[in-house]
Amino acid sequence: MGDEVAGFEAAAKASLPVLLSGPTGCGKTRLVEHMAWRLKRPLVTISCHEDLSSGDLAGRWLLNVAGTEWQDGPLTLAARHGGICYLDEFIEARSDALVLLHPLGDTRRYLPLDRRGEKVQAHPDFLLVVSYNPGYKGLGKDLKPSMRQRFTGLKLSYPPAFLESQVLQKEASASASLADSLVAFAQRTRRLQDHGLEEGASTRLLVNAAKLIQSGLSTKSAVLQAVVEPLSDEPELIEALKALVSASFA
Hints:
alpha/beta, Rossmann fold, 2 domains, five-stranded parallel sheet, 12 helices
């Protein structure tokens, strides 16, 4: 939609880490996958969660028949051999895991393996990419300035209506009229974000709805299953969204 590709390529050329921010389902992961293909670099993707520890990222000692053996974690493998390491929703990880990113995210570009007594100097083709949704702060976590300022930033959002319609036509073989109606419905849900709804319908959810329709489900049933139910558990919001579905797909 903008200069995301050029910005990503420039960061990769300068060996500068990249922070992608934007709402759920707007294409952050798809952008990283495209850039890995475009730059011809291996891609290691890590989905972060509250139990993700430094050992899960860096590696650990394991027992085998010969005794103990060190096994590199996914972050170490990417740093050691080169490639893009993508941490999705990285602020969900435990603090000890995030600390590992500090020396990788500045001019030092190394990964400390304290348990092994080693500092892995990052490969020239190593690129650290992380993403998060600024509208969702799980477990009360927020992005600290000391971490944010280690990255170059690219902000993503949902595409304009005509582009989002083209995405649905390409990704789910939806007709132009169906794609347009689904996008119009999504835009209505996004306007409810200031009225109790945490997030509006994402492009990803619209693709899912269009695929269900292509599989034979009615439009209303597909939108209820793929969009409304994943958006909220609140009975009042669900009822309001159901009414919006009925009004949008009469």
